[in-house]
Design goal:
single chain; alpha+beta; two-stranded antiparallel sheet; 29% helix; elongated; binds zinc ion
Length: 103
């Protein structure tokens, strides 16, 4: 699981609490609609002629939602949570190291 640092304020898709700038959150892709099947292939977008004009028709829409750290890690067992936290700590150390090297 990858967490992202918020560059702006969001609202958590699940608990509706604020995700503040700088907080860690998880991007979640929401899918709406379903593909249309042409010759057995799932097509998410087709070109259809409407009144003689070719028009791109989207059958699936993807929206990115934001989950706060608590909701993103909810239901995780301790081992998975430790892996996530260790990765975050490692990333923080790398960032500090990079900053020191640049000075
Ligand atoms: Zn939440």
């Amino acid at each position: 699981m990858k967490l992202t640092q918020a560059r702006q304020k969001y609202k958590c898709h699940e608990c509706k609490k604020d995700i503040n700038k700088g907080d860690k959150y998880k991007k979640k892709s929401l899918k709406f609609g379903s593909p249309t099947y042409i010759n057995g292939y799932a097509e998410e977008e087709t070109v259809e002629k409407i009144n003689g004009t070719p028009v791109h028709v989207g059958h699936v829409i993807r929206v990115t939602a934001q989950l706060c750290f608590n909701c993103a890690t909810k239901g995780m067992n301790n081992i998975d949570l430790q892996v996530v936290l260790r990765k975050e700590i490692k990333e923080s150390i790398n960032n500090i190291q990079r900053r020191i090297n640049n000075e």
